[in-house]
Write a structure and sequence with these properties.
alpha+beta, 26% helix
Length: 241
Amino acid sequence: HEVKDLKSECLASMEQTKSDALLHALNTNGEDLAAPFLQHFNPWKGSSAIARYSQSARLASIAAQLLNVDSVRLYQDCVFQKRPGDAPTDWHADLKMVPLDTNDFVTVWIALDDVPAYDDGGSGLHFIEGSHRDFALPYWHWEELTNEEGPVLDLTDRFEDKIVEQDEPLSAGDCTWHHGWCLHSAPDLFDDEQKDRVAYTASYVKSPVRLLDEKVLGRQDGEDAISYEGWVNDVAPGDVI
């Protein structure tokens, strides 16, 4: 019942933020490119039920254990709605879009629908094992990774033997966890899929944490700016949050 209740709350939240999600997808991908998903930011703000879930001691405890830290705080939560016809989700790392000076960041991805294995048309997350420790990638290939026309570096070729596909089916309520620098992606839905795939995510960061220093604040990818624009200007660059 817990997963059904969470999905019900997320679906209600999606209805309320549908226009914002469509506009965000258009601004991010442009008119000529298919969006990989609709992203509904911070549903916990409009739903006490979702807030109880995202801020639960259970999820926070798991996040702290995975990061090997004493305390974490919720950074953001989201509902991801992948629709038939949406594009695949490219390889990316969450922390590249976060204005915080930290490596201690982890996200839980919770399936709200049954997700078949990849070979059977599933669109769960794929990961690149160990990519969160690949310091050489951003150090030597930053310009290629931040090219406005899209990455020109073939990440699939670079990490061919490290790619972990979703080779097992997921039931609604199953989850995966990934580090903030772990590269991950998701395939598109099979052509014969007739319904959306909905997933809920919550991201946690070590507490306390600092806002990026003014010398680098703004270098983060602005795709998720809608998530933090309501508070980031209230904190001085480099200050503890």
